[in-house]
């Protein structure tokens, strides 16, 4: 085992619960020692022992232009020299808001926050304040950050409200969240028929990225839009992961569906802590100080984070950016699939824009249940063998992967060649 990583993990566990500041980093799902990252550049990260990896996590999505892109680093440096935080409005925030509204036409107004969790939590509160209703619908396997009403799993029956999926979440909160199966429109219709007039919002990852990668079935998102319009329910697309990642206008642009509210994060900060929520003007005007729904943040719209975010977004607007990104990602998943097939390993893969899923199952999953039925043991062996060979995939069978614009054809070929050997050993 690499020595400094192990020593740091041991040391970290003395003062940080589990040794990490966000649970997936602890490698609990795959076992073994997490790599402590010392630095990153382009498509690569280096761990505390100086070992290099071609990185397919990309900070879980933000590093779409590659790590430490010189233009982003320079923007951060320039902004920092002018002061780190003022607690007062800045021109940079206005430019960032204008850019987001221009790039994502469903945003008539937008508010900046500091994380995806804050964005979804605030969007839910706003939807409740706007509709005067308490209940919300979410889907099993979709993750929307760790606000209380979103850490909820399915109840005992379709029409029952959910149970907390985390300690510390009161049943009284969870009971307002109905948890349904992603891609099952019949269930959503049944719930709306029974209590549509009580439902403030549907929140959905329109392409799910937190149960590996799962695309919506034809008609699913359209059906959600139709039901929300019919019942006066706020449709929230949580595009924290997919926004500016699957394409220039997120999933809403790919499928041509306009949500009422959208939540954003990751890419829009270029690696700095930024989130945002926005959408219909009549809804957004319900937020304080205009309206009665309270929402705030000392570091919201941080001048340094906004400087990084603006450059990150501008870089994605370069001609051909998404075509190149999608081509690289397709090259990866196609190559992995061929290599697995040649070795006779039950494996499938899928991709959209710069986001991908690899599954140890014969067919691409379409539901949470399908993903849960994939071969986790095989994934874990694949993960560790690839890590040893210098290819850093997400440390869980239930996470999506990310390619950046800094990944070259040769990087992808190197990963496929390494996977070929690993599949042969697994087959
Ligand atoms: N929504 C989605 C779809 C996410 O993927 C995440 C984080 N992975 C969040 C919300 C929460 O974002 P954050 O971790 O920045 O709070």
Structure description:
This protein has 427 residues and is of the alpha/beta class. The chain has 2 domains: 174 residues, Alpha-Beta Complex (Aspartate Aminotransferase, domain 1), CATH 3.90.1150.10; 247 residues, Aspartate Aminotransferase, domain 2, CATH 3.40.640. Helix content is 38%, strand content 15%. The chain contains 14 helices and 16 strands. It has a 7-stranded mixed sheet, sandwiched between helices. β1 and β2 form a beta hairpin. α11 packs parallel to α14. The chain starts with a helix and ends with a helix. 49% of the residues are buried. The model has no long low-confidence stretch (mean pLDDT 96). The structure holds 4'-deoxy-4'-aminopyridoxal-5'-phosphate. 4'-deoxy-4'-aminopyridoxal-5'-phosphate binds next to α4. The site of 4'-deoxy-4'-aminopyridoxal-5'-phosphate has 16 residues, from α4.
Strand order of the largest sheet: 4-12-11-10-9-5-8
Order of helices and strands: HEEEHHEHEEEHEHEHEHEEHHHEEHHEEH
Major sheet description: 7 strands, mixed
What percent of residues adopt helix (DSSP H or I)?
A: 25-40%
* Number of structurally distinct domains: 2
CATH class of the largest domain: Alpha Beta
> Helical element count?
14
What's the number of extended β-strand segments?
Answer: 16
Cofactor: pyridoxal 5'-phosphate
Main location: cytoplasm
Organism: Parazoarcus communis SWub3 = DSM 12120
Protein name: Glutamate-1-semialdehyde 2,1-aminomutase
